[in-house]
Amino acid sequence: MQKLTALVVDAAAGFREQAKSILTAAGFNVEVAENGQQALTLASAGRFRLICCSDDLPDIAGSDFCGQLRALDGYDYAAVLIMTDNDNARKLKQALLAGATDIFNKHDTQELEIYVRRLAERETRHLSGRVLFIEDSRVLQTIIIDLLTDMGLDVDAYTFAEEAWAAFSGGDYDLVITDIMLEGSMSGITLVRKIRRLREESGNLPIIATSGFDNMSRKIELFQLGVNDFVSKPINREELRQRVFNHITSYQNVRELRAQQNSLYSLAMLDQLTQLFNRHALREFAGKYFSEAYRFNRTLSMAVLDLDHFRDLNDKYGHDKGDQVLAELGNWLKRHVRDEDMIARWAGEEFVMLLPGCDAPAAVVLMQRMQKRLQRFKPANMTISLSVGVAEMRHEPQDNLNTLFELADRAMYQAKMAGRNCVRQYQTEEGETL
């Protein structure tokens, strides 16, 4: 883990201790100085990542201190915070022009706490991820590979875009860094274009383009093409490091959020016990089945399956055994339906199947075959049977999931009345088959 060092410069001992306490809590090793000259001597002898300096030092103005500090070797990218007793626009402008990173009011320590905590988290965070890197200069390639690996990243480096494209097709990357002008038949521009044409998630991968041609019109063309960022050559290591950090963390955060959303969606759509779709999912997706049946004048049937004597099973063996039966039955049903069918757990021990392209007589045959196979299956070492009701969509204006379910559910009760463990197609009271 990177060692964080900070310097507090203030004539007031009370504020020095207060600032030191805040920085130490954030993970910094802190040194203190009472005046500007002492601070500059300490800064020359060591390397501080963060400097908190009063705007009113006894020997030098805060803005002048910033200018002299920035002139020291190694302080180009240090965070320099000016601490003031009074907000003053003129002081702020002077400090920023002299090289200050930001200015804080000494009386609002909460803002300082937030800033230093976030800086510490950023500096000490060890990235993990995979970078596809294309650069035809061997010297520059070595320098950037060292930078990326020091950040904790795995790097696949290539000299030619053709090789990189082949690797991209089979890899799982978090970032692409590519030179625009490359040797070979494929340029970096072509590589970017091919990536952006992909429809899957990898087509949205962040891309940093590099080039020795720092031309504004070329930059605009690259952004229009789909690059997320541009770094001019010769490449500044710290600039590239910060840009890589931002793009990878943002991309990984988005992927994590999307994964969480997909997980929540799955939880909302799946019955957790049987891992079948639940009633909510059935209502969500049924519209597609009905619209296609109307549009293409296709048949659509529904089967309602109810586990026989399930209440007796629960009373005799307990609800844990009953849950085990339902879980294993759900897995079995999922493996014994056609790819185009949809099966869901409706409620309790009741299941619903939508059977597109299947009329009622064919659905009855399909369910009877399933019942025969079920005789050889003993979930939780229990012998079970199903009563099944089948109904066919009538292509009438009022037909929908609810009306079809009502018919199939009635047919299921007719199967119960017929002695259970059988399949019945819905019939009207007059005995006419629908």
UniProtKB/TrEMBL annotation:
Residues 5-121, 130-248 form the Response regulatory domain. Residues 298-428 form the GGDEF domain. Transmembrane segments: none annotated. Keywords: Phosphoprotein. SMART domains: GGDEF, REC. It comes from the Bacteria. The modification 4-aspartylphosphate is found at D179. Its EC number is 2.7.7.65. It catalyses: 2 GTP = 3',3'-c-di-GMP + 2 diphosphate. InterPro entries: CheY-like_superfamily, Diguanylate_Cyclase, GGDEF_dom, Nucleotide_cyclase, Rev_trsase/Diguanyl_cyclase, Sig_transdc_resp-reg_receiver. The keyword Phosphoprotein applies. Its cofactor is Mg(2+). One of its GO terms (molecular function) is diguanylate cyclase activity. GO terms for biological process: phosphorelay signal transduction system. PANTHER family: DIGUANYLATE CYCLASE DGCM-RELATED, REGULATORY COMPONENTS OF SENSORY TRANSDUCTION SYSTEM. This is diguanylate cyclase. It comes from Methylophaga frappieri (strain ATCC BAA-2434 / DSM 25690 / JAM7).
